[in-house]
Amino acid sequence: MTEVTEPVTDEWRATGERIDxxxxxxxxxxxxxxxxxxxxxxLVTDFYGAGLERLLDLVHEQGRLDDELLAAxxxxxxxxxxxxxxGLHPYSVATRVENALESVRPYLGSHGGDVELLGVxxxxxxxxxxxxxxxxxxxxxxxxxxxxxxxxxxAAPEVTSIEVEAADETAAGDGGPLVPVDALFSRLHGAGxxxxxxxxxxxxGATWEPVPALLALESGGVERFTVGGLPVxxxxxxxxxxxxxxxxxxxxxxxxxxxxxxxLGGDSGDGVLSCHACRAHYDVRRAGACLDAEADGAHLDPxxxxxxxxxxxxxxxxxxxxxxxxxx
Length: 328
Known about the structure:
This protein has 328 residues and is an alpha+beta fold. The chain has helices at 11-26, 31-61, 67-75, 77-85, 93-110, 140-155, 181-184, and strands at 2-3, 113-120, 125-132, 161-166, 206-210, 222-227, 230-237, 240-245, 259-261, 272-274, 281-283, 289-290, 302-303, 305-307, 312-317, 326-327. The chain has a six-stranded antiparallel beta sheet with strand order 1-16-6-7-8-13.
């Protein structure tokens, strides 16, 4: 097995965690000690926030704060997070949410679905409408929950809730949301990346793990990885990447030696993943639905995958112990 280098955790993230640890440790000195620690952090944060605001004002006064510079500030994770903390992010919540949804639309579209942003309330609630359906995808609610929640949470952590409505209330059965709101959302403020038991991850939910090796996968290629301790099989059809648990739904063996080919009579965008062990055939674009006559509803377990050309990440259930990304 060849180990693939995983991006080193950013030092600034470790610094933030260290600050939280120190504040928690100060509680050992009593309530007063903790309050003083929190006040110190708040005063320092306000001080630097005022400086950042003045800095942006000066750049604006010099006519340098143009669209190109704003885009560069927003694209830098560290700068954007600092600006966000101080309420200085150059883009509105609605713009950031829309950009986040745009990043997951290719993934949702590969499962026959889409999402529309209806608006963001003054209270910070995001209203979405689900479009289409995930035909042949029994775990569509789970995959949609992970993809949408992860993207929105990363782009706009100040969002308080996300409300989902069906595009066709009749098709939605009882008129409720296609995806249970409780499973999707709770309060994003300070929450983890979990999506609840509906996503198959139990109460611990799931986390996004970077898999940079996916970007090197060529069209028609199939590769097996271990991501965060979870065996994963991934493939690419043209520009689109797909990931599944590395387990055949028919023979329950790993997909070692699996091949990807076009369906007989299908168009160029088709993709059928075949198990080398039992010759079962799975429709990649229909979330791994088995195409065999005796399938009886068998399907691969799809995993949310986000790729923007510069990075790629796969959502992995949190109960799986973390470990480096390796390729088989």
